[in-house]
Design brief:
Blueprint (H helix, E strand, L loop, with lengths): L2 H17 L10 E9 L9 E2 L1 H12 L6 E10 L2 E11 L13 E12 L5 E8 L1 H15 L1
Parallel strand pairs: 1-6
Antiparallel strand pairs: 1-2, 3-4, 4-5, 5-6
Length: 146
């Protein structure tokens, strides 16, 4: 699969699964085993997930932010990997531990490197993101409601 097709496939995956919350669409994109190699602060960091586990991750991750959307800034292919740089925004509509839903917009940025298998399915990722910035926004929203 050439780089342009991998990028197109990654865009479709992000849109269908993460932006629209269609976890069932993961069947078309995720390998039988998906490894979260590096994603500090993510509850699934370091884990390998089967397809059902990946879908559960999507559903749980989106629960507090059901309207989340990724604005893809760049896609860069190298071998069996595509790196995506992105901006993310969502409305805090569901409770998180210590942070009741605020109804306010949360934003973050990051970069994710996705691996592919021979069947062109995603096998895992390495991710760096601004989780501290998310925490600070949640904390500010909590303080504003008190």
């Amino acid at each position: 699969m050439n780089a342009a097709l991998r990028k197109q496939r990654l865009r479709a995956f992000i849109r269908q699964v993460w932006d629209l919350g269609n976890s069932a669409a993961a069947d078309d994109y995720i390998a039988e085993c998906y490894r979260i190699h590096h994603d500090p602060g993510d509850p699934w960091d370091g884990q390998s997930l089967d397809l059902a586990g990946y879908k559960d991750r999507v559903d749980r991750s989106r629960a507090a932010f059901p309207d989340q959307a990724f604005d893809i800034q760049g896609l860069f292919a190298d071998g069996d990997h595509v790196v995506m740089t992105w901006l993310w925004s969502a409305t805090h509509r569901g409770d998180l531990p210590g942070f009741p839903a605020s109804g306010r917009t949360i934003r973050m940025s990051g970069a994710t490197a996705y691996g592919y298998d021979a069947d062109h399915r995603l096998t895992g990722h390495w991710q760096i993101t601004d989780r501290l910035g998310v925490y600070q926004q949640l904390q500010a929203n909590l303080s504003a409601t008190r």
